Each structure stands twice: as structure tokens, then as C-alpha cells.
User: Fold Putative ABC transport system permease protein from Spirochaeta isovalerica.
Amino acid sequence: MFKTLFAEAIFAITANKSRTLLTLLGIVIGIASVITVLAAGEGGKSIIMKEFEGLSPTTLQIMPNWQDWSYNRAFDIEGMTDRDLKDLENLGKHIRSIAPISNMSSIIKVGDVEKRLSVTGTNSNYIDFVEFELESGRIIMDEEVTGQSKVAIIGQIIKEEFFPDSDPVGQYMSVFGTPVKIIGVLKRKEKADTISISNPDDGYNNAIVVPISLFERLFANEGDFYTVLCRANSIEEIPKAKKEILNILARNHGKWDDRINKFMIFGMKEQLDMINTVVGTVTIGVAVLAGIALLVAAIGIMNIMLVSVKERTREIGLRKAIGAKEWHIRSQFLIETLILCGGGGLLGLGLSFAASYLIGYFAKWPVIINPATAAFSVLLSLLTGLLSGFYPATRAAALIPHEALRYE
Assistant:
């Protein structure tokens, strides 16, 4: 019986190829839009996970308390000072490493090549927090930080733009008008790895890292550390370390309204959870918007099936007159919509794979269609078919034979 119903459904669908193709197009676009957006969201999460892979679970990030900013407090935002760093370094029983991070835009010049780029200032401990892999040269040493040495480490893009035909190690570049000697070149990292805590716009490949003491002198930025990385001695020490850090900063900077901390501390897990929540929310929001196309397609299918019921009224009446049951008629129309939507779902999945490849190729953004997403696309298309076909199928099954046979 099912084989017969399936064959009849295929015959009915192929009887009007133009209408079938146009109906399919709506489902294909709707499914492809939803799946591509979800896959792009998965790609965004993979970028975040790769960024945090090199960071220890004992790493803490201190920054101004933007969560409790208000209009009145916006002008009271403070950076951390050298005094804060010294006080934090004395927390040896809870913290074993500290790295201040500052960023500033500057004109970088080598010969006739001149560009405005971001410069990062930090200390020799930064290597403990971020997986810097050197292609050549060496890292910044403690004595170079204390001595305000004019040295820098650069990324691969900087090397290619300013030193395309030579080894930059030992050569000089002008940073804010000051000659700085290049002592190291970082290995290239893939695009998915280049979102950096210290330099979110450019990443490691575009990095220019100098001693924090030199950075302060170049940019007259002494005392303004808006990001400081700390490493607790162990995971168990993290709560105590957070409490002690906030106490020190409250003692040095006070609190808003004598109760709200001016700084906040994130552990790596907290940051991951927060960012994944934001990415997930945005992805779902955009997917819902993309789902509107699928809703429009579902309405279109329902409309087409109602037209089909109208066109085949006499056929339905004849079939019921010679013994066809209501469930036969209902099943045939439901099978037709399921075939339409299931086929559209598979084509939409194929289109989403093609779109993912193009996005990855041109935008250099990973788009990940995992098995769960693929299965979801097929189930979503079948559910669309079931919902959009149920009313037309029920209406067809409810036709009275003698009235249907008189229909012109």
C-alpha cells in the first residue's frame, strides 16, 4: 500500500514540474540559510576554543569593571598602575606570574614603507600566558623590560610587509618615531588561531610586541594598564587569589559608592562561557531571522497543496466512491509534501555545504556543519512538510464523494 501511495505521490509531483521546482526553491533557500548560519556559529565557537587552548585554566584576566559602568561612572574608569603590579607580585602564595598588557596605534616605518598598526606593550612573563612560537630570534628578557630597551618581536604579516626579502632579526623599524631593534619573529598561525586577547583585531600574525616600559615611554601611557593577566598557583587557589586581588585594587583605587569594585576578574572558563553564550545567542537570533524564509516556504507549500486539492477534487471523489478510505487520501497528500520538503531539505543541505566552502575560502572563516546540524536540517525539512501538508491533506480526506464528483 505504501509503495502505491509513494508512486502516486511521485506522479502527482512530477505532473507539474515548474510548480514543483518553484516550491522546492523556497525550501532549499530556507534550509540552506538556517544551516549555514548555525554552521557559521559553530565556526565562531571553534575560533574561540582555539584561542583559549594555549591558556592555562589557572589564568586570570583583570580589567575595569565594565559590567557595572553607568553614565556617572564612565568618566571614573581607571587603569592599573605600577604600584598595583608590585602589590600583586607580593601575592606569591596565590599568584606566580603577572603580565600587564597595553595596546596603542602607531605609525610604523621601515624605509619608504609606512603604516599605522597596533603595538602591544607587555613584560617577559607574557610568554607564560600566550603560546608564542618563534620562527627566529628570541623573546623579550627581564632586563630589557627594566631597562626600557628599544626591542620588539613581530609577526609574519609585519615581516612580509616591511622585510619581504630579508631576515628582520637585527634590523630596525621606527615605532612612533623611535628606532626599535627587531629581536624575534613569530611563526605564522592560521586565521582561526589569530584572535588574540592582547590584540583582537590583528592577532599574532600582525603582532608588534615591545617591553611595557618602552611602551609607556613611547606613548606617555605610564600607569594605564587596562588588562593584566595573572596565573594562580593552582585551580584551588583561584578563589583566594581573586579575593586578594580585588582587596588590593579596592585599597589602591577605592570602590564606586563604597561598595562596587572598579575592577573585575575573569577566569578562562568564565570567559569561555560568557563568549560562547554571546556567540550562541547571536547565532540563534540570526538563525531565527533566516528561519523566516523557511516559514514563508512552508506557507507557500501549504498554498500549493490547497490548490492541488482543489484541482484534484473530482479525482479524490472518484477514489473515495470506489472505496478509498480517508487515511488513504490523507496519507497521499502528506507523502507528497514530505517528499517535496525532504528533497528540498537534502538540496538545501547540499547548498549549505557549498556556501560553507565559499565562506571559508573567501572570508577565511571556518563554517562547521557537524552531523547533528545535518540531521537537524533533514528533520526540520520533514517537520515543515508535515505541518504545512497536514491541513490540505485533512481537507482532501474530508471531501464528500458525491459533492466532489459534481465539482467542475
Summary: The first helix runs from residue 2 to 14.
